[in-house]
Design a protein that fits this description.
eight-stranded mixed β-barrel, Alpha-Beta Plaits, about 575 residues, five-stranded antiparallel beta sheet, Beta-Lactamase, 21 strands, 3 domains, alpha/beta, TIM Barrel, 22 helices
Amino acid sequence: MAKRQARSEPLQQSTWQEIEQRAFDSRDTRLDLLEFIPDAIILHQDGVIRFANQAAGQLFGLDAKTLQGQPILRFVHGNCHMQVQSDLFQMENEMISGRRTHCGEYQMVRSDGTPFAAETSCLMMQTRDGRPEVVSFIRDVTDRQRLYESLTQIAYYDTLTRLPNRNRFIEYLEEILMVGGSDRKRAILVLDVDRFKYVNDSFGHAFGDSVIQEIGKRLRMSAGMGSFIARMGGDEFGLVFDDIELARDATKRVLRQFDKPIQVEEHEFYLTPSIGIAEYPRDGKDAATLLKHADIAMYWAKESGGNGLREYVQPPVDTWMRNVQLDANMRHGLARQEFFLLYQPKVDVRTRRTVGVEALLRWQLPEGRIVSPTEFIPLAEQTGFIVPLGRYVLHQACRQIALWRKLGLTSLVVSINVSAKQFQHVNLLKEVSEALKEWSLPPSCLDIEITESAVMQNPRDTAAALCKLKELGVRVSIDDFGSGFSSFGYLREFIPTTIKIDQSFVHRMVSDMREQAIVSTLIQMAHHLDMEVVAEGVETEEQLAMLQTMRCDVVQGFYFCQPKDAGLVERHLLDEEAIV
């Protein structure tokens, strides 16, 4: 065991001076004094023990007299021989300049070969004949060292996987960044297990712990040489590689490990990882920045559907600054009431009458410019500001419904779009219930729309929340249906009120027989499940005619009406009522 720096203070200088003074008194008096000190004390010259007190005999497991004449290195662990010899040589040289003390820790051994951790305090002095003599105070600190190692294990290692934890990961990353120049490309990876929450929810946390242990083992096997692996917490792991190419090769092996089923107890299933990678020094020159960028890349991978790798790409400075400013303007804009709603009618295919409207959020800056939803909605999703924006849409829509109902438009259903983050961060059922109560509205007048891709981010919890909304009496629609990866899988757990066929199918079905077949199949399936079908993006008479033939229920698009403000929609609705 290599020498470690001592953690205890050396004896006071006055004590050393007293011992040295007594050294020049009679030898018998000096030895008698040392026998009364509880610490093990040996005097040695030229590497040979000349005197040992009784405490030293007890420490090394020999009679004190037997210790005399023994080489000091016999009681030093082989790993520390060179260090002890080097320290003694250094002490002898430093004695010339007046420095005579030395403290340290070494691995020593008892006479039977049992190793122990020893803390030593040494004094180098001269005998009457001018020869150097060392007085060593030795203390067994094995228990203290074990306690220290135990505390270190707790502080720096994960108890479940025995891997280093987040604290040790960051410390290690800081350490290696100090070694070598900035021309050395290193890689930092953050791996998160996709949809691991459902393992815990379905089988319990003890089962989930077994899965995490298995994933930790697979990472050890696949990461290879030149890697450092840590469990960052939950189902997230961090990896550091000394070389970027090693990292890319190891990532391929890691992904292959997840192609294999995980077997726990009698259950066999597959999990996938989302991996983000940041490169040193390209993506940052300090541990905090690199870890942040690897985290961002991991979330990009997760938002892209998971089961893959994304490398961090530094956005252009102007883009980043624009987003910072846009985010600030959004927050101020909501307070200044710059946001407003437009409404696009939904038309019954058979009667050509408006049966509902979709509320669409718009933003107008003080200078008059309209900010496109494609510009501010994704940023609001990233920052979480979509939650207060969604709350604003809910209350504004309910307020407008109440006004229309006073005019006799009681059968109108208003749809509002809800973000996946609203399901994750707020009690949507409670918010919808409170809004309906505040405006004295029946639940059936409100339709909650959520995109298929948003459902698939957290299908089980989202489906459960949507079921509760349906039980309340609120209509529930799946927007952009057919555009996701698992269009039908969640229908086993949740049947929405309505599906909205993605406009990409509607646009292509006129010229593509396969698209026609898909749209027709979706409509038939929905009707078999007692769901209503809304086709989005209808822009031509030909598209409308085909949808009529396929028995689509409702259409929405520019062919009938672009989004309008509440006043224009109200006039349109009242005109329809007057015709009847």
